[in-house]
Structures
1.
Amino acid sequence: MEQVTIYGRSSCGFCASAIRLCEARNMPFTWVDMIEQDMTKADIAEKIGRPVHTVPQILVGDKYVGGYDEFAGYVRQLEAN
């Protein structure tokens, strides 16, 4: 499994759920707290190449997956194969 990168805020429940999903599946991940890193949604948009309205924003390797719902679906699809 490639490295998962989760951009979000510690106060975000969906961000915490994405972290728990990675931990439960033993997926290697990096948590990037946007507040601690002084990052804005515009900073994340530059990295992923699309506007950002919500967090978390999740990448697997260099591939943009989406928010928590899309990431959970991505993990389910991996497990089904």
Note: The helical segments are 13-24, 41-48, 68-80.
2.
Amino acid sequence: MIRRPATRARLLGGLAPLTIVLAIALSAPALGQESAGPQVSSDGTALTGLSAAQLFDIADQARVAGRLADAEAIYRALTQDAAQEIRSEARFRLGMMLSDQKRYQDAALAFRAILDEQPEATRVRLELARVLAAMGDEGRARQQLRQAQAAGLPPEVQQVVNRFASALRSNKSFGGNFEAAFAPDTNLNRATRSKTLDTALGEFTLSDDAREQSGLGFHLTGQIYARLGLGGNFTLVPRVSGDGTFYGKSQFNDLAGSALIGVEWQSGGDRIIPSVGRTWRTYGGNAYSRTTSADLRWTHRLGQRAQSDIGLSYARTHYMRNAQQDGDLFGLTASIERALNARAGVGISLSGQRQTAADPQFATTSGGATLLGWREAGRMTFFANATVRRLESDAPYLLTGTRRKEWFLRGGIGATFRQIEVAGFSPVLRFAYERNISSVTLFDYRRATVDVGITRAF
């Protein structure tokens, strides 16, 4: 206990002397070791010789007394301690205090910093899941639960986590997210590099806009949503989202926006969401298509480590530039994601699509598969994916007299760098390469992209 009231007032009352105190005190013995006891400096402005245990005690007293700013300052100073045990304890106490204040983003950052050093810290991962759910990010919350269970839990803890996973539901009424990135692109219009096109009427020279174009773009995507309880296990979920890529060559700007409304039903490990909506797309500043859609998605928890998603969709699309492309779009997707351990996970997704059209040359049938994986390594998360898809048209393409038969191949790698964090966001770097091998020269292309952007740091 600090005996001089004036000195204690300086310690707990203002941040400037508190910073001086902590800068000196953190060189004291680690938690659990004996210290020589607190000493008052000759000018009476700071205490020295405080152990980490004593600093934790002072911070806890400040928190209980309602001096939250002082408690936070001490905890944050202790997060810089050389001993991992002290850093982690300080971050955990800080995260719990911030969560109680509903400062969920700051709490998530504190818990994430612990997991970067100690990925097997199951209690911390469960608290991060709880905070993410409170922020409305239910998908990431469930991923954290799967990783916690993959690390291995005692039977009695597993039962509690199972109940938590079954009851997990975001109670955030309104929310949103966004991501921004600079996007260098070697083929921003996904066009052939060939200068000519062989047709039934002879060889045509393609214009520059119809051929491969490179450029530096800016990609922005985001959404806002609401969750309105309807009683029982039902929630009304309206959602507005947008996705756009903008280039110096404005004729290639690609912008899409959608408005959807769905009803979510959740019980135990199952969640079913039927939804309907409308999508608008513009290309080069001109209206490109309008789509009315209906969708049904079923998410099911598979044991402790895995989750499956099955989706059925129907859409009716009108193309502004070519009404002969108008038609129906039927889709089926099925995916499984599995946590391998506390650090890594994998997933596989299968899809099939049938697109009708007024002119059968534009009608297609396609199907494919995507593999993905991720691994945490310290304060970085690495991820990779690979896609293969087959497409065939119903009838020959009129210009060439050849049916479209294509193999689409795509591979991507990337990483998130949490060493850098500003306002809850960290840099993300992605590289991808695409190859579309088509029997119709016009659709045969290669493309490489690099995204340098920001994403959530947790």
Note: The longest helix spans residues 84-100.
3.
Amino acid sequence: MARTVISYALLLALAATALQWLDYRYTVHAFSTELYVTLLAIGFITLGIWTGARLTPRTIAGPFQRNDAAIRALGLTPRECEILALLASGQSNKELARSLGISPNTVKTHVARVYEKLAVTRRIEAIEKARTLALIA
């Protein structure tokens, strides 16, 4: 009984394989251009992902550590460091003045000195340079 079942199973498997092979040949013949373009696209996507994964450095970011040497080298005061960190939060000068309890003119003076010490002319430049130098998170 087992031999009969196994022989029928093998015959059915061979018949299914033959049918799939014929269907595959028809599909490849009928849609050859689309199939080849799709296979090429999949290959290039795979190659791009693999190359990107290999070339992208994997840096494990630890907790933020402020660059005190850069702060000393630039001559930033603790208040200017505080202003710089608050600039990154996107607040206006009036909002900064309210949160620090000082006048808006004092905030403008601090911001101008931060710009001068970082050698920048805009807030975005100051924030980018501060992040590059690890002055703010």
Note: The mean pLDDT is 86.
